[in-house]
Amino acid sequence: MPGSSPYEASSAFVGPLAEALSCVAHGKITASAGGKNDLNKVHELHLTGIAGDGYVRLRGDRRIEMRARMFYEIIRDPRPGYGPFRITTRGYDYSLRTSDGLAVVDYHWHPLGQSHEKDPHLHIGAAQLRPDSVLSNKDHLPSGRITVESVVRTAIESGATPLQPDWETRLAGTEYRHVLHRSWH
Amino acid sequence: MATDTQTDPAATVDEMTPEEQRALLESEARRNLNMSADEFAAKWRAGEFRGNEDPKVTQVAMLLPDAW
């Protein structure tokens, strides 16, 4: 989402993410140094905070834990309606795991210089695999671009208790705004 | 004047200091790969993790400022 300043762009970016996350968790959203204002540098956004290993316990009998990290840049965009400043996502790392620390599913997008897998993908976690499984947790399964909202939905569908009675409407709203402004799908 | 966090969500976002960011990377490198951040960064830049498909490697690498 655009902003008239780098700070406004970062605020427009964070708002919907915070609202989406609030459907299942209350984390202390934390950015890397300069993450609210510095242009042309990849920043970190820890949506579930940085305490411990960054996971938050979700309510519900399944005792699922979630961690959500995004990597982004604040850039100039001269196109009408897209700027003058906006956020572009550079990568993400969304994870669901059991309360004893076993991965359930990891959603990754990390087009790093040395990555051999630069498209969005997921890893099936060890908690879901058997020793004789065909797949392993190291397999990169193509997923298409994953939104924070879809991870929240997966958590709820997997047994996490929603914290907002209108969670479906909230997630639809925040996701729509994101899809409207993102530059690729 | 109090900040209206509904119109300014960024006001609720903490921003790490460079030292805190460095400490986070150190913690993640040690917890996931049993090595220091400096050791991990050196190995990453030297290409020693090329072909390593362990998701923990890229989860730590994403926290390296110069990996992008």
From TrEMBL, chain A:
Highest taxon of the lineage: Bacteria
* Name of the molecule in the record: Uncharacterized protein
UniProtKB/TrEMBL annotation, chain B:
Q: Which organism is it from?
A: Phytohabitans suffuscus
Put simply, this protein is called Uncharacterized protein
